[in-house]
Design goal:
- This protein has 396 residues and is an alpha/beta fold.
- Helices cover 38% and strands 13% of the residues.
- It has a seven-stranded mixed beta sheet with strand order 1-9-8-5-4-2-3, with helices on both faces.
- Strand 2, helix 4 and strand 3 form a beta-alpha-beta unit.
- It is globular.
- Bound molecules: pyridoxal-5'-phosphate.
């Protein structure tokens, strides 16, 4: 059979921003209120309702959100936080920026998520908490993580940047109070977007004021109320803090994205399963798991791993060949500890890595790539992706 190369380049993801978002944006612009205001407040209430949490506060990114959670938890220089290297680097950098040490445990190669089997051995008297990451939108094994955290008096902060809409044991990620904070991202690559943006979901009312101060100059009162008719121009700064507030023009997009999220995720799930069917007979690649009743996926990423010995090419060659076929892919992720900063960081702190290293993280990190997956992807696009993969594998 002759193989026709796809004509236009297919990116691995695209945001799905439609007419509703555009109309709401215009409404914000015409109202004269662009920055943090009533729409940001409405978006927070909508997120609380969707996620089933009493508090969900928004800010400029998930990275800032995670920094703020660590500040709220009083992370001190030298404190240790256990996490995974197979994540976006902000999971680690936010700990390091606070003077902390990310202590790494290996992943479960079946799910790519942190393997709780490594947790006990990683705990020391300096350990303060655990940050599991729901990589690809597949929930991490939270029962084991919560059990070990409780036994050792550790907090849990979930990095749910990729997991809006996923569920663990039927509950939305963030809804279980055994995690003190859960952090979401609304970056354009995510299942729903606000352009840039992030949120912290939490249960303890006591954190509300602090998070509001830490996201906006150390001022607790909602700044926009200062300028509204009922507001007073006076305010008090109670601590120095960053400026990381969330704009109404971001909320304008988010309010409609949130309404569409379940539909987006259902479509992602359909396409994810269809990829599994279309590639079921390919021995050269390892396919991802689709989750189960406990770990209910939101299908953020479809991560394939190539078996170089069978494919007779490595991941980077495979990615380059797919690009020649006009198929875009992503790499989620190059493990954090192989980046130059962290190579030096862990060389100086060998105790922060397991004795046997991170063999599963490294094995997967060298072989993984993300295929195009977003709700607007057509089955025809998907057929072309799979045809290109089969063509490249047949002609190494
Ligand atoms: C697992 C994970 N954590 C954190 C982040 C950071 O999110 P943001 O870009 O909103 O800061 C991302 C974004 O890619 C992510 O995928």
């Amino acid at each position: 059979m002759t193989h026709a190369r796809r004509e236009a380049f297919l990116p691995f993801t695209r945001p799905m921003v439609g007419q509703e978002e555009i109309a709401e944006l215009i409404d914000s612009i015409e109202s004269g209120w662009l920055t943090t205001g009533p729409k940001a407040a409405r978006f927070e209430a909508a997120l609380e309702a969707y996620n089933g949490v009493p508090h969900c506060l928004v800010m400029n990114s998930a990275t800032t959100a995670q920094e703020i959670t660590l500040q709220c938890l009083g992370l001190q220089p030298g404190d240790e936080v256990i996490t995974t290297a197979l994540t976006w680097v902000s999971t680690l950098s936010t700990i390091v920026l606070q003077g902390g040490v990310p202590v790494l445990v290996d992943i479960d190669p079946a799910t790519l998520n942190l393997d709780p089997a490594g947790l006990e051995a990683a705990i020391t008297p300096r350990t303060r908490g655990i940050i599991p990451v729901h990589l690809t939108g597949l929930p991490a094994p939270m029962d084991a993580i919560w059990r070990i955290a409780k036994a050792h008096g550790l907090w849990v902060v979930e990095d749910a940047a990729q997991a809006m809409g996923a569920r663990y044991r039927g509950c939305r990620i963030g809804a279980d109070p055994r995690s003190v904070f859960t952090v979401f991202s609304f970056h354009p690559n995510k299942n729903m977007t606000t352009g840039e943006g992030g949120a912290i979901a939490f249960h303890d009312d006591a954190f509300e004021g602090r998070i509001k101060r830490l996201r906006f100059h150390g001022i607790e009162r909602d700044a926009w109320k200062r300028f509204a008719k009922e507001g007073s121009p006076h305010f008090d700064v109670t601590e120095p803090a960053r400026k990381a507030n969330f704009m109404d023009i971001q909320a304008a997009i988010g309010l409609h994205q949130l309404k569409k999220l379940d539909g987006f995720n259902a479509r992602r799930g359909h396409l994810f399963r269809r990829y599994l069917d279309l590639m079921a007979d390919l021995g050269e690649v390892l396919l991802p798991v689709a989750g189960d009743e406990v770990h209910q996926h939101c299908f953020h990423l479809f991560v394939l791993r190539i078996r170089p010995e069978k494919a007779r090419m490595d991941r980077d060659a495979f990615v380059a060949r797919l690009k020649d076929e006009n198929i875009g892919t992503g790499i989620h992720y190059r493990p954090a500890h192989v980046h130059s900063f962290y190579r030096d960081f862990y060389a100086a702190r060998p105790h922060a890595l397991p004795k046997g290293g991170l063999p599963h993280t490294e094995w997967s990190g060298e072989r993984l790539l993300s295929l195009p997956l977003w709700p607007g992807l057509t089955e025809e696009d998907q057929d072309q992706v799979v045809a290109a993969i089969k063509h490249v594998l047949a002609h190494p």
